[in-house]
Amino acid sequence: MAFKMESSQLKIAEKLVILNDRAVGMLTRIYNIKKACADPKSKPAFLSDKHMESAIKHIARKFPVVDSTFHYVDTMKEDIIKSLSLALYYYTFADLMDLKDNILQLLTTMDACQCQLDISLNYELTAGYLNLVVNLICLMILLSRVDDRKVVLGLFNAAYDLTHVQSEASFPRLGQMILDYEHPLKKLSEDLGPLNRLILSALSSLSPVYLRRNITANTWRNAQILSLTANPHQILYAAQTDTIACEYLSLDVMDRWIVLCTTVCHSSMLADKTIFNLWQMSLQMGVCLRLFRDEIFQTHHEVQQFFDSIKGYHKRSQEVKDCYSIALASIHADRRRFLRTALRELCLFIKDQPGLLGPKILFVWMALSFTRDEVLWLLRHLSEWPSSNKKGSKQCDELVDRQLPELLYYMLELRQLVTKHSDVIQRYYLKYVNGYDAIMTRELVSGIGDLNEEDAVMLSDFAASISSINSDTDLRALRLDWFRFQAKMSMARSACSLHKNRKLAVIMNTNVFHLKMIDLQDEMLKETSDLSVYCFYIKTLEKQWKNCLTLPSQSRFALCFARICGHFSSALHDMCPEEKNHILEKFCLRFPLKLYGGGKYFVTVPLDITRLFNNVLLQQTQPLDSRNKETMTYIYTKWYLEVVLRRASAGHMLWSEHLQAMISSGEGNDFAPEQYTDPRELRCLAQIIGPYGVKYLAERLTWHVASQIGELNKIVVANKEVLHTARTQFDCNERMKEVIQMLSHEPKEKKVTGTSASDAILQRTAIIGQIFSFRDALQVALEQVLLNRLPFLMSSFMNLYSSMDDAGKSALGELGNAMGVQGPVDVALANAVRAQSLQLNPDEHYQMSCLLLVAIAISLPKLALNETATYKPSLRASMNNTHCIPLAVNTIAGALFHYHGRGDTHLRMKEFLALASSSVLRAAQELDGRQDIVSNQSALYILLEQFVNKCRWLSMDVLEACFPYNLVRTAYQHCYQQEADTFQ
User: Got a GO cellular component term for this one (predicted)?
Assistant: First the structure.
């Protein structure tokens, strides 16, 4: 006798719930693997190993027949087997194969039982079935998009074979599955084609629901579909229909059901006129569908490509092209305009009368679901809508929705109202179920005569249970009982059919909806209005937020984008706990203040987080961590050197001595430099990267300065005789004119440089001054941090340091730098110069250093002819950063002559001041009478005073001996007056 299994033993309802949840979890895992394999930072290290390159190419070419006799694989087999990521990927693919087998087995079982699917009657069963089919399709399409799937499987199996002398047990079937699903739609068509009867019945029942939902905004408007005032005399009556669960069913979900199921079962589906009309309508609603998160299925392209591979399907392929040409974005733009008004009205009503949430909660779910569908449609089409042809150019404007923030705001406001007044909804439906649903269900069940004993008991118990529920009752079992009942009554051999007892199905579906209003409001919010997909469109989210801030009419809704971030946790799944992002670079994009504040918040947690952070942050103070990865120190150093200081060198930023920060000068900056360089930010940076990190950053800055000094020395060597003449005959006007002309002459060799020697000298010296200004500010920030964190140690060091002479302070220079204390001589720069000049004769290098100061001194008058050299007293800065030259000269001179050790730094600085003042006065005499350069001449006089103020080897009496100080006072007065006039 053949074995006959009872319908209750098939566990169809339970399997649908479990397999759908597992399918979503598996989608999460496959998605995570796909993203990891595409990211060099996340993919297994073996896949990037150059020694493995030949083995990887061989595996990809010969897969699944993998020769495991690779020498390098043999040497690393233990590491490959133990590799957490590689093994995780392999066994995830194996789990996917098992899941596919279980899904196909359940689908075959339901087909063999001749289940009758009708979404208006057995909603949970039909929706669960269609979701399972679509999840399987999405899984296999996503699998085919994982780039290194063959390499991962083949490499792991090769290492496994070398270790255990046999292939991994699941590899043969796994390898065949990978090959079969190279073209997923073709293979899925073979797998699901025999099950077309059940899919056809499910989609056919969807037709009236889809046609009712997929309509234009004008139809919505004429029907007043979401208006509470359309029927004012019924405003207190509970809103419900015979297909209550279908009213808020996502249009996005239905499109996926229709397009994907019809495509894989094309032979039978497209022959049915009803399904064909649904399929055409769905194809005309957009150009892509959601597979999972931000993975998109290019509907027309993929379907057309699939149909082109089938003989005799040219006509179908042409129909897909026609649908593509008809697809409109304007329909969705009109819907968003309607929904914006409808949601605003709904929010106002509910804010004024929260009690309406009880009878009219269905309107809320419908409004949220409709809005979410349109937001998701817009989100995935922003980057996918064609823009290179006439079709795209006409409709791209429809995708730029400047009023989207308002729509999102009302959507989130409606969610908040539901959450805030959840007790109102719960109390309303508790009374409704106890006072009406329980009585109706009991009367209806007692009137059904063709139920067997088991089914009659199940329904009677259901009616009895809902008559005595309260807010603490666990209602999951009741809903599962109805799901089980649907599965049993939908089988062909069932004595009682839901099609014959339509009223029972309607009442029970309504009961389940009412029960959800009691204990599943959060799940309903997630189902109808979850926007966690924005987590995978971060750039779009940021762009929409910035656009919102630029529009006065929309800026009041800007906070809705921050509230959307609260949905991101909904995107997680228990089956993929390892899902993570690389946050180091993202953190380093923050201002140091915010990053330090975030870290400090976690450290204060009363767990052993402090030790963890200390261990991790200690590694972050070095350029590379224990795993040879870039740290915050390295990333911030790279940022400040290659972005901030490079733009400053190009003239896009200037250093303000008043603000002690880089500020923007003109256009060319996509960020505010002061937000990264002001004292507060630098103190936080010092807290993050610590003294070691500051030392590393300062060393890199010093080496940049040393390279600039090397370039200056090349200019000095090229003009050695001219500079020697200027040094010895600076009091001879005629000779000095010749010297200045020679230095101001642009060289004929354009390949060498496009500027004169004097211009190059001033430019490079100003760059050095900018770097030193930033470095000194960083040292001051470190000193302030250490004074706050280590006051006793700092005071002890300062007592010792202050008692020493300059020679002793120089000996402690490196220790002082590590504590943020600036010494009389830049020891780090002196060491860098020493490293660059090991092959030079000491006397020649000394002469070169002297001539370098001469070159800077006699080049200063050139600034009088530069319009950007004007001094701004409010910033204490020149517009071309030439105010940084005094700091550069004093620091360079101190380091160079400390390196030479002749003890004549003060003499060289006096010589420099004499040359500079003589050159400035000579230029002032020659240019006397030119009103256009008065401001620049004043800036030069102020510059001379700053040379003395910033120099420890010069004093004001030395300045007055070679330059009249009344010119300095007049220069300050002129600059202040000129700036005051510009503000009037």
Answer: SCAR complex
CA distance 952 to 894: 9
| Rounded Cα gap, residues 547 and 586, in angstroms | 22
Q: In sequence order, what are the residues at sequence separation of 6 or more whose Cβ sits closer than 8 angstroms to the Cβ of residue 71?
A: none
What ranges in 790-929 are assigned the alpha helix state H?
791-802, 806-811, 813-818, 827-836, 842-859, 885-900, 905-926
3-state DSSP call for residue 528? helix
The pLDDT tens digits of the residues spanning 503-515 come to: 888 999 999 999 9
**Residue 772, pLDDT score:** 92
Q: How is 721-770 classified by DSSP, letter by letter?
A: HHHHHHHH-TT-HHHHHHHHHHHHSPPS-TTT-SS-HHHHHHHHHHHHHH
- Return d(Cα 510, Cα 198) in angstroms, integer: 25
| Under 8 Å between Cβ of 819 and 859 | no
Q: What angle do CA 784, 789, 794 make, to 5 degrees?
A: 70
pTM of the predicted structure, to 2 decimals: 0.65
- Three-state DSSP at 718 gives helix
CA 780 to chain centre: 33
pLDDT per position as a tens digit, 731-790 = 777 788 888 888 877 665 544 445 788 888 999 999 999 999 999 999 999 999 999 888
Angle CA 328–334–338, to nearest 5? 155
984 SS3 class: coil
pLDDT digits (tens, 9 = 90+) for 184-227: 999 999 999 888 899 999 999 999 999 999 999 999 999 888 88
362 φ/ψ sector (left φ>0, alpha ψ -120 to 50, else beta):
alpha
Q: Is the pLDDT of residue 369 over 90?
A: yes
Q: Which amino acid is at 732?
A: C
Residue 567 has pLDDT above 60, yes or no: yes
Give me the long-range contacts of 838-844 (CB less than 8 A, separation at least 24).
842/900
Distance separating alpha carbons of residues 828 and 808, to the nearest angstrom? 15
